[in-house]
């Protein structure tokens, strides 16, 4: 990356599938590594079909999303460039980035953190889902859904010296956390939402009219979804919003519907 930054005429740009040691690098400095994307999970489910007026479906998943390659979409910097995200544009195991680029040209972070295996941005260690329903004597149907999930890992990200794009180079190992406006956090907060449902049928001869009410985020919980992880807005310019909240869970929403069944 240092040579590319300096506009060295010996730099070549290749479109290929990188792997351990391929393609070769200038003077053998640094090396490409194997892309790694691994998902391990254990899921426990329980279900009861509608009987005796009630039903239930429940699941809990423990999982780990681990590696150095997130996939066609890179969510840590919102880069939707299938197969050509910035992670493997340069040898990620390149010591010259910190040995030359940092002290001489003001590079931030360490490109070698891209090569290290760690928690990927969409890792959700714990996920709980509960869906239940109950049918009253008068024909009124009630339902509720509870969704609970642990937050996303946080990593401080510097801008690319070459692309001048924010969120490219980790300043610390993946998932090591950042200082947010709510204090130090290794992940975004837990996310949860409770949705409610009610429906009531009206007989119309052989057909019927069903009145339906859905309330999403019943309690109006608006937890933090994301923080600004970018230490720079562009290369060489610090980000004054680093660590601030950037998005929240959607507010309460209500949907009224009429369904005709025949």
Question: In words, what does this structure look like?
Answer:
It is a single chain. This protein is mainly beta. It has one domain (37-79, 119-261). Helices cover 5% and strands 40% of the residues. Strands 1, 2, 3, 4, 5, 10, 11 and 16 form an 8-stranded antiparallel sheet that branches.
Structural topology:
Elements: H1 2-5, E1 37-51, E2 54-67, H2 96-105, E3 118-119, E4 126-135, E5 141-149, E6 157-158, E7 169-170, E8 178-180, E9 183-185, E10 191-204, E11 207-216, E12 224-227, E13 232-234, E14 237-238, E15 245-248, E16 253-261
Antiparallel strand pairs: 1-2, 2-3, 2-4, 4-5, 5-10, 6-7, 8-9, 10-11, 11-16, 12-15, 13-14
Summarize the structure.
With 262 residues, the chain is mainly beta. 5% of the residues lie in helices and 40% in strands.
């Amino acid at each position: 990356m240092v040579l590319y930054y300096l506009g060295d005429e010996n730099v070549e740009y290749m479109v290929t599938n990188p792997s351990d040691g391929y393609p070769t690098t200038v003077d053998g400095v640094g090396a490409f590594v194997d892309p790694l994307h691994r998902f391990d999970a254990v899921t426990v489910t329980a279900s009861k079909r509608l009987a005796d007026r009630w039903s239930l479906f429940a699941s809990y998943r423990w999982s780990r999303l681990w590696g150095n390659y997130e996939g066609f979409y890179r969510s840590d910097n919102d880069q939707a460039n299938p197969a050509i995200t910035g992670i493997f544009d340069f040898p990620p195991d390149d010591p010259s980035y910190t040995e030359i680029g940092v002290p001489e040209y003001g590079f931030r972070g360490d490109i070698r953190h891209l090569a290290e295996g760690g928690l990927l941005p969409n890792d959700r260690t714990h996920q709980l889902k509960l869906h239940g329903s109950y049918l009253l004597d008068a024909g009124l149907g009630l339902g509720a859904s509870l969704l609970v999930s642990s937050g996303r890992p946080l990593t401080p990200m510097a801008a690319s010296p070459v692309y001048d794009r924010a969120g490219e180079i980790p300043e610390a190992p993946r998932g090591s956390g950042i200082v947010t406006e709510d204090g130090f956090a290794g992940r975004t907060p837990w996310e949860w939402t409770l949705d409610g449902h009610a429906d009531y049928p009206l007989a119309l001869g052989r057909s019927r009219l069903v009145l339906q009410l859905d309330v999403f985020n019943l309690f109006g919980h608006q937890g933090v979804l994301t923080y600004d992880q970018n230490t720079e807005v562009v290369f060489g310019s610090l980000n004054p919003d680093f660590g601030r909240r950037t998005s929240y869970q959607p507010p309460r929403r209500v949907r009224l519907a009429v369904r005709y069944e025949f």
